[in-house]
Amino acid sequence: MYIVTSTVEVPKEKTDEVISIYRNRSKLVDTVKGFKSFHLLQNDKKKHELTVHMIWESKESFLSWVRSDQFKKIHELEKNYPDQELANIVPKVTQYSVVAT
Question: Domain ABM spans what residues (predicted)?
Fold first, then answer.
């Protein structure tokens, strides 16, 4: 199993907007081979810190997704988001190999 997180700090006044974007996400990734689950996490102490948490069957499954046209399409849409303040936020991405359960 492989876990990937992507954490961002958004402007406090735009937190609800970003949460809404993720609630209405395209879900293209949900159909990708090897994809297991998606969660959007909100930090209890810093409400404007959001983390995308994705679980994959393997690192190879994740890398296949990252190299796909679907991945490129979704991330191009993000770059062209009308709110440039949100579009320019760079997430902290962390990848984990599950070594015990």
Answer: 2-90
